Each structure stands twice: as C-alpha cells, then as structure tokens.
DUF7705 domain-containing protein
Amino acid sequence: MAMETHLRVVFFLVNVVVLGVSGAGGETAVGDPGMRRDGLRVAFEAWNFCNEVGQEAPGMGSPRAADCFDLSSKNKHRRRKHAVLKSSFLKHQVSEADNKLGVGQPFPGLAPGAINNTDLYAMQKELYLGSLCQVEDTPNPWQFWMVMLKNGNYDTTSGLCPRNGKKAPPFSPGRFPCFGKGCMNQPMLYHQQTKLSDGGIMRGSFNGTYDLGSDIGSGLDGISFYEVVWEKTVSNGSWVFSHKLKTSKKYPWLMLYLRADATTGFSGGYHYDTRGMLKILPESPNFKVKVTLDVKQGGGPKSQFYLIDIGSCWKNNGAPCDGDVLTDITRYSEMIINPETPAWCSPTNLGNCPPYHVTPNNTKIYRNDTANFPYGAYHYYCAPENAQFLEKPVSTCDPYSNPQAQELVQLLPHPIWADYGYPTKQGDGWVGDARTWELDVGGLASRLYFYQDPGTPPARRIWRSIDMGTEIFVSDKDEVAEWTISDFDVTFT
Ligand SMILES: *[C@@H]1O[C@H](CO)[C@@H](O)[C@H](O)[C@H]1NC(C)=O
Ligand SMILES: *[C@@H]1O[C@H](CO)[C@@H](O)[C@H](O)[C@H]1NC(C)=O
Ligand SMILES: *[C@@H]1O[C@H](CO)[C@@H](O)[C@H](O)[C@H]1NC(C)=O
Ligand SMILES: *[C@@H]1O[C@H](CO)[C@@H](O)[C@H](O)[C@H]1NC(C)=O
Ligand SMILES: *[C@@H]1O[C@H](CO)[C@@H](O)[C@H](O)[C@H]1NC(C)=O
C-alpha cells in the first residue's frame, strides 16, 4: 500500500518535471487550484430527499463512484513534449468493480454494522474511494471534487425523513412531489472512465437517469437525465466540467452540483464523515473564490442556479457541530443568478427577509427600515425551525429535506453586493454572459445574518462546502439546464 503510494508520487513528480505542470503556487484552500492538475480526482454521490440513500437502484451498487488517475509516462527520460505525450497513459486508481460496490459486499476498512445498512454503507464507500484517490499534500491530503445529485421527491407516507433530525411519523401526501411508492429511488449511473486520446485530450463522464428501466440511448423525451463530462488538454489550461440536468413529470425537483467539500469531518448538509477537495477549510472573512461559469441553458423559471453556494454547520448556541442531528444546524447561503427568480423578501413580506442587512462598512439596516433595506438583494431567508428566540415575523425552513434543521440565506444579484465582486444586476453571469468570477465570498459571508441564541458567542464561520450548480425547484414541465465550470480555486486574502 505504502509502496504504491510512493510510486504514484514519483510518477507525479516526473510529470511535473517533464510536462511542466505547475504545482501548488500561492495560498490555496483546494487540492487542485484552478482545476489544472492533469491527474484528475472526481467523485459522484447521489442523495435522496433527506440526504441519505434509502434504497439502492437495482444493479447500480451504492450511489458513490469515483474517477481518479494520474498521467504516467512509459518513457520517463524523454524530455520532448510530443514524445512524452505519445508514451503517456492514464493510470487509474478506482476500478469499475470498486464503483459498483453495493450493500452487502465487503471492502477494505468497511466498519462493522455498515455492511447491511444502505445509508452507512454509502458513507463508508465514500471513505474507501477517498482512500484510493487520496493525494498527499501540505498541510493536509485531499481526495476529489464531488459531483452531487439529489432528488427532491419525498414519499411522506414512508416516514423516511426525520423532522429537524427527530424521527417523525408518516403524513398525508401533497406537500412534496412524489408519484407514489418508489419516488425516492436512486438513479441509474453510467460511467465513462477517463481516456486519453490523440492530441492529448483527456475526457470522461458520469450520466444517467432516475427513470429506472428507461433507455437514455433512445432519447430523453419524458425522462429525467443528468450528465457531467470532464475534459482537459494535457498540460494546458483547466479541466472543463460540462453539466446537464433535465427534469421530468416524475422527477420535477432535481439538484446537480459540483462541490469542493471538506476532506475530513462533515460537509454542508451531510452528517457523516466526508471526503473532498478543501485541504484547508476557509473561514470568513479572509477568502475568495475564483471560478469560470458559462450557463448555456437556464433550466426554466424554477431553476435556482447557484453561482456559489456555501454550506456549513454550527449549533444555535454558536458551538461547532458534533454529529448530534437534534442540535446541529446546517447553514447555507447561495447567490441565485436566474433572472426569473423573484425576491420573496419585500416590505410587505418581512418574514422572508433576514432581520437585518449589514453593509460593507458594517452598518446594520433593519428590515423594517423600508427606506434603506435592500429587499431586492434577498430571494428568501428562512430560520431553523428549532430556534427558540426568533424575531417575528419569520419563515422557517423545510424541516424534512436535510438530516437536521437548516437555515438558508438566499441572495439575488443587486448593486449592494458590488464590493464583493458578486453579480449586481439581473442577468449577470446568466446565459450569454460567461465570466470568470472572483468573489469575496469570505467577506460577504462574514456579514450575512445567521440565527444565534441571544448572548451566545458568535459561531466561527468556517465553510465546509463550496458548490456550484442548479436546483430545479419543482418544475411544471420538463426543463433542461446546461452549464460549464472551470478554473475553480479558493484563495486566502
Ligand atoms: C447482511 O445480510 C446478509 C444477507 O441478508 C446476511 O447473510 C448477513 O448475515 C448480514 N450481515 C450482517 C452483519 O448483518
Ligand atoms: C451517457 O454516457 C455514456 C457513456 O458512459 C454514453 O455512451 C452515452 O451516449 C451517454 N448518454 C447520453 C444520453 O448522453
Ligand atoms: C492552451 O490553451 C489555449 C486556450 O485554452 C490555447 O489558446 C493555446 O494554444 C493552448 N496551448 C497549447 C500549447 O496547446
Ligand atoms: C456606510 O454605508 C452606507 C450605505 O452604503 C452609507 O449610507 C453610510 O454613510 C456609510 N457609513 C459610514 C460610517 O461610512
Ligand atoms: C425595527 O426593528 C427593530 C429591530 O427589531 C426594532 O428595534 C425597532 O423598534 C423597529 N422599528 C420600527 C419603526 O418598528
């Protein structure tokens, strides 16, 4: 094991020398700054409504998979680039047998008690795939970018999802989409392992559908679809991740994100130990996110496209989370760039606004200050349902769609975000406006309102997940979103 790791490191160093791939430069929080490393690390995870597995899809194994490889050379001593390219090959670290592992099947390191539990098994499989993909680095090793797919169907008669982390009885359908028994199924997953082709192009993909038994090869009419294709030219530029997400009548609420998650501990929305790309966890206010986003197709009026979504976890008393779902609270903030997304926060709907806004010069503006509060900058604020000292009026967040209670601060493009490099007007960053963003995420997130019990020391705002992608939030017709992401980095300021 140790020997193999050593060999891999040697191979990578050889590539650095021969091909001139730039290694880690300035201060970055991610393992692969700018997505420029030829040896890619990417993984896949699918979640049901409450961020668990529930039931595996037949023949698909547990919904965790990975594509991790190093670019190796058969001829280590040639220095001419084209000669090196000719003798290069991808040395894969994850086999298709690993990717197909499903509940009941043992693998190295599998914790006792997890083998027959689909939820625990998936979380353990992620750790196992992480061990295969791990790259040694300072100050910490890292594992992979994470493609996250989630189905928003909830069968309320199943009693499967807890309410604010507490086991809850089944209730009558109507509140959430569900076509009937089995609506919370895991998807079909097809994997094209990354290949190196002539001209030094590396390309691979994950795709599939939630519609079990359907054939995506004969057209996508009426069925759901997701796809992420990654492509890069050897020793030049960034990986480009091309995403596609399609809803259907049976699956009207779908989410597809590319995530940089914590490499250990919990990540946003996930109450299990995780693997990821953030070798240092960024803490507000001193970090920036750089990313190139090209939205090709928006996904309709319900597509809540997140230019950036940050996720973390702390308790209502400001203490860090410890895995106790009854008191841990997931905190999310996201900038929604679909210009069709309205501000639900308004002078006549104060309950959808945070209690106050903080300006870049740290002035607090209360939401009842109708002359000054930037209502148009907030799509929706909702508080954790189990918070005890909420300022009324207030909207509380959906208590079922996370393993624990959650809080959401959803932003819209607005001139007040200009100081942070965020979109300032509707349409910024949207279809036809591809850009490389340099967002002062740390600065902005340090001034957002998040609930805390009165008199408790402020939580450290350490962000465990940084995601991009879309949540098509219950579409009434089949919608398609398409976008590419590249150049992603998190740097300290
Ligand atoms: C897991 O399930 C299999 C098949 O149902 C059974 O044979 C095995 O004993 C179970 N293992 C554990 C640890 O429960
Ligand atoms: C899905 O990916 C497979 C390769 O794994 C590819 O052959 C197929 O064309 C893709 N399907 C669609 C509809 O893009
Ligand atoms: C690298 O990529 C850029 C555009 O992405 C292109 O203009 C340039 O020619 C490429 N360089 C090489 C050496 O292939
Ligand atoms: C802070 O900013 C607000 C609006 O952005 C402005 O009205 C106010 O004068 C500023 N206060 C200080 C002390 O600079
Ligand atoms: C506005 O809200 C703040 C904070 O809740 C409160 O102290 C203040 O009295 C309110 N002002 C008015 C005019 O209602």
